[in-house]
Amino acid sequence: MIEQLVIYPLITQMLLAIVLMFFWSRIRWQRVVSIFGSLINLGVAIWLFVTVWQGGTLSIQAGNWEAPFGITFVADTFAATLVLLTAIAGVAVSSFSAGSVIPARLKFGFFPIFHFLLLGLNGAFLTGDIFNLYVWFEIIIITSFVLLTIGGEKAQLEGAVKYFTLNILASIVFLTAIAVLYGLTGSLNMADLASKVAAVENRTLVQVNALLFLVGFGIKSALFPLYFWLPASYHTPPSAVSAIFGGLLTKVGVYALIRVFTLIFEVDPFLQNVLLAVAVLTLFSGAVGAIVQNNIRKIFSYLVICHIGYMIAGLGMMTEMAIAGAIFYLIHDIMVKTNLFMMSGVIYKIKANHNIRKLGDFYADHPKLSLLFAIPLFSLVGIPPLSGFWPKLSLISEGWFTENFIVIGAIIFASFITLVVIIKLWGEVFWKTGEKLPEVRNFPYFNKLTNIKKTQMLAPIILLSIVSLYLGFGAGNIQNLAERIAFELMDNQEYINTVLSK
Amino acid sequence: MKTIILRTASNYMLPLLLVFSVFILLRGHYLPGGGFVGGLIASIAFVLHAFANGLGDTRQLIRFHPGFLMPTGLTVSFLSGVSPIIFAGKPLMTGLWYPHHLPIVGNLGSALFFDIGVYLVVLGVTLTIIFTISESV
């Protein structure tokens, strides 16, 4: 039973979702089951991570069909790390939703759907089959669509339509790319594809195919010309939902890009230039977008886009150290973005407003909370020794070695603008003497909530802040991890051998 | 739609369609059919009954909320999926087969239980959707 470990994160999430469906209308039970279930899932994820860290890549063949024909699940260090991060974010957001999401929304199956979303995320990270990856992406889209629309407010539906249209388009492009790939090679197993794609004679078609994958995953990870769905939709649902979306959904796209372009396709100079150009433009447009916004969650939405650029820049430079930087940034970004959206949720519960022009006095009223919120905010900026600093260091130094000076410029520009945005946010929300906001009737204000709910909302922020601090102060360990992942990605022989069991 | 002809016919059609849906479900392992189509046919049986006799009668006939079938079906499928891990130490969804041939059913294996789960989920989803829509009309 131990050798089936790869599949256990999927099994726990699936089981959790099913159990929660039996408690459909008993919201109290759902809260308890979801939080404890997420903790169990975290335990499983840690177990998987430790096993992979000590023993190397694991794989199983679902249905016991031999590798290139059946569906493979693979846990290399990259996948195991992301499953672990998903589990940490899952615990945090599960607890945060228990505290913050109103019962009217929970009644429509919020928690079961949430765990189906986590199931989809885990599946996407663990699968070793490109078509299966598509299926997990579909699960992610459908569940995230439900989470976006639960509650049925007008703004939510408007955002959801944009979100769904562009994401379904991405799925179609992705599916077409898979079809072309299957036509070229006759295989869907990623490890098998690695050798078969290299042997295809029609290189032009392979290049076009690679670009199709780039467009498909590019929409999902909100890259430069294709990001408009993100700021249009992420500020509409409850903060708990925004937190899991901002933290993990776009990162699945980045994960898929990194996986596909290190394992299946060889990145030629043309593709490398495309990736770098897209990265620079993403950094630029996300940063400029963030600076003109006034809604807290819209600011964070644009920062999500902006910071995707760092990871794609790392991928585009295609050296081991640059990819290690991208991986480190990915790890840091998942924790910080989840935390920031939860933080915006707490601010909203306290002030009943999202507009930074109207907010103010936060530091005077809640000094301890402000200090807590400073941790994710300044980790995001990357003030040394906090976590955002170290990956940028690797990216910039690697940009220097590979002589991509424009990329360095864009990275510094984006970091600078992030700093400006966060300082503006800090000044407006925390330090400024704000106007007196009118009392909203029937609004569940933070200080009217029970102590349990307050704890449920603040504990995950504290948890993720501690993780962020560890990422900064224990940067050596994370750098080791990132370098090992980058090594495995660049030298993918271990992955291929484990899957095809040569 | 409450004509006497439809109402009389629906009383006979309900068991017939249900038997037919089980037939399609069992046929599905090697031939066209299976849990999904079977579930749709079974839901048509209840929808027809609802058209003829009104929603209240059909609800009384089923007794529990059809939405309850969704987690039940998922549980059946889920258990069939993980059973090889628990009983045989083989990967997820490996087919486990009862070694002897049974009459009508044929060879009994974990795949059948997976299909039964799908059947229940489809039945539950379809009935929930149609009942909700016809209630709000």
TrEMBL record, chain A:
Predominant localisation class: membrane
Transmembrane feature ranges: 6-25, 32-53, 73-96, 108-127, 133-151, 163-184, 204-228, 240-258, 270-292, 299-317, 323-348, 369-390, 405-426, 457-476
Single GO biological process annotation from the record: ATP synthesis coupled electron transport
An example molecular function term from Gene Ontology annotations: NADH dehydrogenase (ubiquinone) activity
Database matches in InterPro entries: CPA3_Na-H_Antiporter_D, NADH_UbQ_OxRdtase, ND/Mrp_TM
Keywords associated with the record: Cell membrane, Membrane, Transmembrane, Transmembrane helix
Membrane topology: Multi-pass membrane protein
Subcellular location: Cell membrane; Membrane
A Pfam family annotated for this UniProt entry: Proton_antipo_M
Domain NADH:quinone oxidoreductase/Mrp antiporter transmembrane, chain residue ranges per copy: 129-418
GO cellular component terms, semicolon-separated: plasma membrane
Family membership noted in the UniProt record: Belongs to the CPA3 antiporters (TC 2.A.63) subunit D family.
Protein name stated in the entry: Proton-conducting transporter membrane subunit
Organism listed in the record: Salinimicrobium profundisediminis
Species classification: Bacteria, Pseudomonadati, Bacteroidota, Flavobacteriia, Flavobacteriales
UniProtKB/TrEMBL annotation, chain B:
Record carries keyword Transmembrane: yes
Protein localization: Cell membrane
Protein keywords: Cell membrane, Membrane, Transmembrane, Transmembrane helix
Signal peptide feature range: none
Domain Na+/H+ antiporter MnhB subunit-related protein, first and last residues per copy: 5-128
InterPro entries to which the protein is assigned, alphabetical: CPA3_antiporter_subunitB, MnhB
Pfam family, one: MnhB
GO cellular component, one term: plasma membrane
Main location: membrane
Domain of life: Bacteria
Membrane protein topology class: Multi-pass membrane protein
Bilayer-spanning residue ranges: 12-30, 36-56, 68-88, 108-133
Family, per entry: Belongs to the CPA3 antiporters (TC 2.A.63) subunit B family.
Protein name: Na+/H+ antiporter subunit B
